[in-house]
Amino acid sequence: MKNKLFAVGDVHGQITMFKEILEYWNPDKEQLVLVGDLGDRGENPKACFELAKELVEKYDAICLRGNHEEMLLNFMNKPQYAAPNYKMNGGMVTIQSFLDMEEGEYDVVELAASLQAKAPWLKPFIESLPFIYEWENYVFVHAGVDLTLSDWRDSTERDYVWIREGFYDQPNHTNKTFVFGHTVTAMLNTEKKNTDIWDAGDGKIGIDGGAVYGGAMHGVVFDKNGIVDHYTVDNKGYAFSEYLRK
Description:
Blueprint: E1 4-8, H1 15-22, E2 30-34, H2 45-59, E3 62-63, H3 67-77, H4 79-88, H5 91-99, H6 108-118, H7 122-128, E4 132-135, E5 138-141, H8 157-162, E6 177-180, H9 185-188, E7 198-199, E8 204-206, E9 216-223, E10 226-234
């Protein structure tokens, strides 16, 4: 086991920022953890999935499953039911990047079939992604855990990828430090334009800087005692929405 870990916040298709933050990662000394949400809304979701798969296969990186991976998986499995929710959450950007198609109206069942034919590796890759990763005294998870329960391990898989209230707004009385994405730190910090990492002070650390919204992508280095380095790439290029730009 490496004695340091490099955690990257939500990517959301921002391949330029993704590659830039990885320049700070030391593969020889640091375990890489991606907290999920590789695609949807951003610059090039396909490239982000391909790079994440390469990092998992070549460097034993840990890529967690986020709610956007879950929505994509649902779309591939039951497109007629899952498509409206996935489209509402930026999913068509991912579909378009894989199929190299123009915007327009398409039959969702045909789109799901085309996606699996064009990228047969995508579905099994998402299905292989873990929901949590424990390292030293940390738990890395996309959205969080249910801290209203007497034992956080009773949290559901849905909690791991979707929870907000019930986690970040609850005191952490466990002996674990939870590092998570999903909820943009600007929603958690006192100043609503502040996209710095959020440290609750009781073992909850948010690292989703809202990269796809004009915010930042964070790379945070941990050792067993806490944060030892922190790198930030600000969004100076493509943004799905620019409400977080300074």
